[in-house]
Amino acid sequence: LRSLYEDAAQARRLPALVLLGHSLSALDLEEKGPVSSLLRISSLYTVTSLLEGEVGQMAAKVKNVSPVEISEILHWTGGHPHLVQAIFRLIQVEEVKTPRESINFILRERLPAFDIWVQRLKVALKSPEVSRIISTLLSRKGRFLRSGYEHRASVLELLVQGWIRLDSAENAWVFHSEFHRRLAAEAYGQRGR
Questions:
Q1: Which of 12, 61, 91, 109 has the greatest CB tally within 10 Å of its CB?
Q2: What angle separates helix 67-77 from helix 52-62, to the nearest 10 degrees?
Q3: Three-state DSSP class for 167?
Q4: pLDDT tens digit sequence for 49-91
Q5: pTM (2 d.p.)
Q6: Beta 164-167 vs 172-175: how paired, if at all?
Q7: Measured between alpha carbons, how far is 82 from 173 in angstroms, rounded to an integer?
C-alpha cells in the first residue's frame, strides 16, 4: 500500500496503517473463515469506555465535580467518551452549571449523534434475534444473561454499535448507559416505521 501513495524518490511520512487480515479469524463469529476485508475489520471497532478515574480527571479540569456527580455521569454515559465530553463541554461553555443540568439539557435537546444511533438500531432491529435481545434488556431489569453462543452474532452487532457492554460482575449484557437504554426504547417503539 505504501508504494501506491509514495514516490520512491521522495520519502514521506504517512500515518501507520496496520492490516489485520487473516489474524482476526478468531473474531469471525460465524467461524466461516477469517476476517479479511477492511469493511469487516472497521466494523469490529468498539468504543472504549472511560473509567471513573479518567472521568474524574476530566471533571477536575472543567469544574470541581463531586464523587456523587461523577457516579451520576458514569450512570448516564457508561463512560462513553462522546457523551462524557458532551456533558463537560456544556459545563465548560457555561450553558449549564452542573452535570445534572447538562444531562437534562442533552435529554431535552438531543445530541445530533442520537438520531444516527437510533436509525442504526432500527435497522438492526429488523433481525428477530437483535429485537429479542433489546426487548429482553428493556423488560428484565436491563439484563441479558451471558449464556452459550446461540446469540453471539447479534450480541456482537449490538456490542460493536456501542449499545451494550458486559457487566462481568453479573455475567450479563447490559445497556452501555442510561442514554443508550432510553434511545433503544425509542428505536424499539418505532421499529415498524
A1: 91
A2: 120
A3: strand
A4: 889 999 999 888 887 788 999 999 999 999 998 899 999 888 8
A5: 0.71
A6: antiparallel
A7: 21
